[in-house]
Structure formats: structure tokens, C-alpha cells
């Protein structure tokens, strides 16, 4: 079968590999669509990061490069391994793409399996990936979805769940809360969409005019301000019910000035969630945190959030179609996918890839 394989930094190849089979406790999925993630771009430009090297196997998967890429994917159940009796061939599914040690508690009450030692992701650390025709996944990580949800939109559920978990880390949303999102990249937009679906009024701060426009059109924000044109802190305070600022703020850029803005724009006793991955240390004005009794929290990926995120999408409160800005064949992954997202990313939110020309043309 066809698959996109990570060999090394700047070296991803589309090649033929053997089809997987469903071992005991596994589900064989025929992939419909797979999104290109910022993490995939980082691997291509700066990696290997999550991907193993040619001579250093991942401690859980045991695999070395090359590995199949793709962790944001949807598909159709094609076969069931021994012992899997609660799914059927033909079911539509998405995957919570974790690679986690067998002795870690991943039950429904766990709140920390995503923080376990050597955690990695299907499509980065091994065990196949969504940028291929088929993938075999442990039953624990496979989530059934309604066939009313188009499979292209279903491929956006994985990054949407990152936003859902970020909102969950903030303690959830109360009707009428004012939320500020710093940055209108894919995760910032999807976090905004979750916030609005849960009843918050959302303000996005973003320099790019095209991204601000997308935030409003896609339903990710009620207001979108440019910090180059207005005083975002003052605009947020004007919109707040008592002039004190945002109830919740989400940092989605890893940019110092955005973090500084959030510290000033968040109301006393408010919460700030750091969603972005920072490649360098930040400077934090601790006095502001102390004097406003701010609650600053980190968030990474998701933990038992997929079921609730899927319910949110199935409820119809959130439309994922506007976030899909391109569809390509896996053969064109670099030229039409990576290159667009690296060099022309103001207009691209989520580009999906498939190995099936019929899906691309339907």
C-alpha cells in the first residue's frame, strides 16, 4: 500500500509498503482522510523530534526511521482482530493516536496517561499512520463516530480535541464567559470554536487580516482584533461585563508579546491556559500574576477528551467544514501540502490528504 514515510529532516518519501493486519485486540482501518499537523511540519523542518532516528528506536514502539506519518485521521473499519466485538466492519471511526506503555492506566477515569513516560503518537513514533491507505490500531484508541459526520470533517476531530482539552484545563465555560484567544492559527481557531460552542463570547487577537477574517467566517470568534491597530487589552475590557477583562485566556502562539497581552487582559482571579509549544523560555511578570491572583495552566494534547469532543460535533453545535481549506492526494504531500502550510499559511487552516482519488473527486 502507499504511505508517506519520514526518513529524516527534509526527507519524507511516498512509497509502497506492506499492508498491516489486525492483530488480537486491534482494529484495521481504511483511512479516509488525514490532516497535516504543525507537528508534522516541525518534523520535516527541524526533526526528528517525536520521530525516531535510524539508529535509535522508540522505547515503546521499538521502531526506527523510516516511520509512516499522520496522526489526525478518520476512516472506516475494514477488519477486527481477535477479541474485538464492540465494533463492526463498516463503522466510521477516528483515532486517539497515542503510543503509551501497556502498564499505564488508560481507563476512563485517568487524567494523566498523556503525561506518561515515553508517550508518543501513532504517525510520529511508529505503529503506522494516517498518511497511508490502512492502519492497524489498538481498540482502546479507536472511537466510533456517527455516519452523519462527513469523514473529511471527522479528520479534524483530533486537533479539535486539543482545543477541547485546553478549555477543559481552564475549568470549562460558564454561559456568558468572555474568552480571549491569542493567535488564529489552526489550534487557536479550533479552541475558539469549542469556546463558542460551549457558550462563551470569544475574542481573538491576531496580526494577520486574512486569519482574523477566517476566525469570524468559521465561527471561531465573535470579535477579531489586530494588536497593530487597536489596544487589545482595552477592547477586551470594554467587552467584559464589568470592565475587568477576560474570564479565560488561551495563549496559542508561543510569542512573548502575546503572553504579555494575556496577562494584562485577563481579569483578577481569571485563568490563562498556555496551549502552544514554546521552543525557548518566556519572560513572565510574576508580579502581575500575584497581584491579580491569576491561575496560569499548561495543557498538552488530550486525555479522555475524545468522547466528549465527538458528542459536541455530533450535536451540531460546531461546524468543522469551514476549517478545511484544502484537499490533496498523499502523492502531493510536500508540494501541495507542506509547502503551502510552510510558505502560504495565512490562508490555510487544515489541509487534508487521501490516497483515494475517488474521495478527492467526490
From TrEMBL:
Keywords assigned: Metal-binding, Oxidoreductase, Zinc
Cofactor field: Zn(2+)
An example Gene Ontology molecular-function term: oxidoreductase activity
Gene3D superfamilies xrefs: Medium-chain alcohol dehydrogenases, catalytic domain, NAD(P)-binding Rossmann-like Domain
Domain Enoyl reductase (ER): 10-330
Species assigned in the record: Rothia aerolata
Top-rank lineage group of the source organism: Bacteria
Family, similarity comment: Belongs to the zinc-containing alcohol dehydrogenase family.
Protein name: Alcohol dehydrogenase
Amino acid at each position: 500500500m502507499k504511505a508517506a514515510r519520514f526518513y529524516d529532516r527534509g526527507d519524507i518519501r511516498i512509497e509502497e509498503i506492506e499492508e498491516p493486519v489486525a492483530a488480537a485486540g486491534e482494529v484495521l482501518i481504511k483511512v479516509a482522510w488525514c490532516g497535516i499537523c504543525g507537528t508534522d511540519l516541525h518534523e520535516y523542518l527541524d526533526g526528528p523530534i517525536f520521530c525516531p532516528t535510524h539508529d535509535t528506536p522508540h522505547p515503546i514502539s521499538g521502531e526506527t526511521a523510516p516511520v509512516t506519518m499522520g496522526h489526525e485521521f478518520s476512516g472506516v473499519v475494514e477488519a477486527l482482530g481477535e477479541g474485538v466485538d464492540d465494533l463492526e466492519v463498516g463503522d466510521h471511526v477516528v483515532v486517539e493516536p497515542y503510543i503509551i506503555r501497556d502498564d499505564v492506566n488508560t481507563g476512563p477515569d485517568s487524567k494523566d496517561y498523556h503525561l506518561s513516560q515515553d508517550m508518543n503518537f501513532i504517525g510520529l513514533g511508529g505503529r503506522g499512520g494516517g498518511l497511508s491507505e490502512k492502519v492497524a490500531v489498538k481498540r482502546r484508541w479507536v472511537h466510533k463516530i456517527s455516519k452523519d459526520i462527513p469523514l473529511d470533517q471527522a479528520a479534524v476531530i483530533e486537533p479539535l480535541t486539543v482545543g477541547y482539552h485546553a478549555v477543559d484545563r481552564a475549568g470549562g465555560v460558564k454561559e456568558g464567559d468572555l474568552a480571549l484567544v491569542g493567535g488564529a492559527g489552526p489550534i487557536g481557531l479550533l479552541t475558539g470554536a469549542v469556546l463558542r460552542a460551549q457558550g462563551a463570547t470569544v475574542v481573538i487577537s491576531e496580526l494577520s487580516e486574512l486569519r482574523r477574517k477566517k476566525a469570524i467566517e468559521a465561527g471561531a470568534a465573535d470579535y477579531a482584533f489586530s494588536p497593530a491597530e487597536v489596544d487589545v487589552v482595552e477592547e477586551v475590557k470594554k467587552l467584559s461585563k464589568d470592565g475587568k477583562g477576560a474570564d479565560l485566556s488561551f495563549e496559542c502562539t508561543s510569542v512573548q508579546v502575546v503572553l504579555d497581552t494575556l496577562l494584562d487582559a485577563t481579569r483578577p482571579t481569571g485563568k490563562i491556559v498556555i496551549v502552544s509549544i514554546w521552543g525557548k523560555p518566556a519572560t513572565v511578570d510574576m508580579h502581575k500574576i500575584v497581584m491579580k491572583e491569576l491561575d496560569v495552566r499548561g495543557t498538552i494534547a488530550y486525555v479522555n477528551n475524545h468522547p466528549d469532543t465527538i458528542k459536541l460535533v455530533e450535536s451540531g453545535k460546531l461546524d468543522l467544514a469551514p476549517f478545511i481549506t484544502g484537499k490533496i492526494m498523499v502523492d502531493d504531500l510536500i508540494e501541495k501540502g507542506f509547502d503551502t502550510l510552510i510558505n502560504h499559511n495565512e490562508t490555510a487552516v487544515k489541509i487534508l490528504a487521501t490516497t483515494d482519488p475517488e474521495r478527492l473527486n467526490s
